[in-house]
Design goal:
Blueprint lengths: L1 H20 L19 E4 L2 E2 L2 H6 L6 E2 L11 E8 L3 E2 L5 E10 L5 E5 L6 E5 L5 E4 L11 E5 L4 E9 L8 E7 L7 E9 L1
Parallel strand pairs: 5-13
Antiparallel strand pairs: 1-4, 2-3, 4-6, 6-11, 7-10, 8-9, 8-12, 12-13
C-alpha cells in the first residue's frame, strides 16, 4: 500500500512538471530572406484540457471541443484570421477577415439561415464599442438557405471590412459571429500602425 502511494506521488510529481517542459520550437531568421512576410494570427474556439484531464488521459488529444447550449452546434469550431498583421492604415483601406467553421464531430451539422447573410463582422475599440459593422455596407436579401457541414469538413468565409474608423497605434478587436447562431462567436485583437 505504501509502495503504491509512493509510486503514485512520483508519477503525479512528474506529470506536474510536464507542462513546464513544453517549449516552442526556436525560430531563427534566415539570412537569405530580405523582408519577412507577416503571417496572419489565428484565433480558435478550441480549448486546452486541464492538468487533471491530461494526467488521467495522457495520450489523448489536448484539445477540447466547445460545449454549446444548442446541441445541434456541438462539434463545430471557429478559426479567425485577420490580415495583414499589424494593420498599416496608410497602406490599406480594408482588412481581410477569414472565418473557418470546421465540423470536428462525428455527425453532419445543418445550419439554417433566414437571409443570405451568414456572418457578421464588427470592429470594436478598447471599450467594446462598435466602430464598424460589415452588414452596414452590404445588401442583405431575404433568401433563406441551408449549409450542411459533414464531419471533418469546413466552410470558409472571407470578407473585407473598411478600416476608416480605426486610428493608428491602438489595439482593436475583430468580433465575428453568426446572427442566427449567437453561440458561434470568435474574437481577435489586432494592432494598427500609421
Amino acid at each position: 500500500m505504501i509502495r503504491l502511494a509512493i509510486i503514485f506521488s512520483i508519477l503525479l510529481a512528474l506529470a506536474a512538471g510536464l507542462p513546464a517542459q513544453e517549449t516552442a520550437p526556436e525560430t531563427r531568421p534566415v539570412a537569405t530572406t530580405p523582408v519577412p512576410t507577416p503571417t496572419p494570427i489565428t484565433t480558435t474556439t478550441l480549448k486546452k484540457r486541464g492538468l487533471f484531464g491530461r494526467i488521467l488521459h495522457p495520450f489523448s488529444s489536448s484539445e477540447v471541443l466547445p460545449k454549446y447550449n444548442d446541441r445541434k452546434l456541438r462539434g463545430l469550431i471557429l478559426d479567425l484570421q485577420v490580415s495583414p498583421q499589424p494593420v498599416r492604415l496608410s497602406e490599406v483601406r480594408q482588412m481581410e477577415v477569414k472565418v473557418t467553421v470546421t465540423n470536428m464531430g462525428n455527425r453532419m451539422i445543418p445550419l439554417d439561415f433566414p437571409t443570405d447573410q451568414r456572418i457578421e463582422i464588427q470592429l470594436l475599440n478598447a471599450a467594446d464599442a462598435v466602430l464598424t459593422k460589415w452588414s452596414e455596407n452590404h445588401a442583405i436579401k431575404d433568401k433563406p438557405g441551408t449549409i450542411l457541414i459533414n464531419p471533418g469538413e469546413h466552410v470558409e468565409y472571407k470578407e473585407n471590412i473598411a478600416t476608416r474608423d480605426l486610428t493608428p497605434g491602438r489595439v482593436f478587436t475583430a468580433d465575428v459571429f453568426f446572427p442566427k447562431y449567437p453561440e458561434l462567436h470568435v474574437r481577435q485583437k489586432f494592432l494598427t500602425e500609421p
